[in-house]
Every structure is written in structure tokens, then in C-alpha cells.
Amino acid sequence: MEIGSLFTKNGARDEGNQAPRDAATVILLRDRTEGAYEVFLMRRDRNQAFMGGAYVFPGGRLDAADADPELAVCIGGFSAADAKRLLQETDLPEATALGLFVAAIRETFEEAGVLLAREACGSAVDLSASETAARFSAYRLELHEERLTLTELVRREGLIFAPDLLIPYAHWITPEIKSRRFNTRFFLARLPEGQIPVHDRMELTESSWMTPAFALAENAAGRIILMPPTLKTIEGLLSFSNTAQLFAAARSQRIGTILPEAFRTADGFGIRLPHDSEYTLNIGKQPFPTGGSTRIVMEGGIWKTRSV
Predict the structure, then answer these.
(1) Which of 25, 93, 209, 284 could crosslink 259 through cysteines, CB 3.0-4.6 Å?
(2) pLDDT for res 15
(3) Looking at the domain 21-306, which fold is it?
(4) Angstrom distance (rounded) from CA 173 to CA 171
């Protein structure tokens, strides 16, 4: 999700009025036998105009194929009503709601090689065998090059997608000043057993498991780049000691839409979040929380969270 370049290089605002495109992002997590749990991050190619060099979660925009009615029989009884209820968006079109879960599954497979699906018998997809891993690696490339659809993949392998493994966690909308805007739903998911995430080596050039604290420290030191939604999301993960606690909280929380408000600072620029005391947009205004940052500012080329 692009929120980083709120202003052009000469300081002018990028005045855009394009409606935001629906998108899905997956925060892939794994527990460790000792120490804090980890999150999977991938670095985008430095030469890309869109968030070049930034560390991101797997994700991307909702494609028309993600709402293919034929996929309904490949989702194991998970309905559009289930999707709308979990997203907490009762007014969302059914095809969009269900499609966001499908997009999350597709993007996680295309970008990270992790497939949130089950065999017809109900057992989790295991990609640990070398022959299976090679076959699904080929599928991944075919999907990326649009030579294969999700429907064809599941029919060929007899699979059932597992949207129930995704837990809606956050909802960000790119500021209105941007011409390229996204309406992104963030999901939590545990790494399935028998699968090893690997970046796609095309748009994504590196990947790493990091604890939330380590990722934030690396960003603060300028060794990695975290854009505002990723930075704020990882900061929020610090509140939970394990994934069980995190997932339980996510299932019971109210998901508020985050539409950042851009502003100038003495040293550059930043964004106010909806619970900031100086946030002025009528849409998305939220009560001031106890603790936590309320804005994100660019200082010395690094995004940093701040409270006022």
C-alpha cells in the first residue's frame, strides 16, 4: 500500500482524486520455541517506482478473477456473509468481500509461496516434499504470468482454499492526496506446517523473519525501510507476547478504518491517524486511545511514529 510518497521531490502535493482500489495484505506469523514470535517481511526491488526498497507484507490489489463465482465451490463452505461479518463491513458487495479473502490467499502464494489451503480430506497442504514443492513453484510462476488461474490450480490439485485461516486485523485507505490509492484490508495468518515462505525473486528481492521489536529497531537505524502502514502495524504487534494472544484480540476487536491525514512539519511531512487529537477529517475520526502513537512523520528519510 502506497502512503510513503505523500509529496513529490520538489515538495508539491500529489493532488489525486482516484477512488481507492480494493486490496488485501497478509501479516504472516510464526511462533518460536523461545523468544517472541516473528513476522515475515519481504523487500521490494529497489528499482520499482512503487515502494521501491521497502519491506512489506505479502499482498496486492483485488483482481476480477478473485471474485470468480466458480471459486465459491473451492472455499469449503465459507460464504460471502461470513466474509462481510468478519471484515465488519456490512455494506460491502458480497463479491468484493469474498474476493478480498481470495486475493489475500492468492497474493500470499504468488509473493511468498505460502498456500492457505487444504486437501479435499481436510488436511493442510504440505509442500515439504521436493516434488510437491517444485510443482507448486511452477504453479506460482504461472499465476504470476497469468498463464494459470486460481480456479484451474485448485481443480488440478483437488484443493479447498482456507479463508478461515485469515483473521481481519486492520483497514487502511491511502490519503486522498495520492493519485494511486488503495483500500486495503490487513489479515493475520499463521505459517502452515510443511511450508517455507520464499520471496518471488522478481518484484521482491529479499525476505526475512523478524520479531516486531527487531523490525522496528532496523527501521529506526535506517537499515530497512518500513512504510507507515507496515510500521504502525508492527508497532501494534508489540502489545502481544504470543500469536494466540494476538489472534484472540483480533477476533474480538472493532476494526476502525484508518484514513491518514497528511500534514507539513518543520523538517518535512507526516500523517495524522484518525485517533490523533489534531485529526480534522470528519470521515474515520476515532476516539483517542490509551497509549500508542497517533501520527507518523518522516525524519531524516525514516518514517517514525509519534504521539501528541
Answers:
(1) 284
(2) 46
(3) Nucleoside Triphosphate Pyrophosphohydrolase (3.90.79)
(4) 7
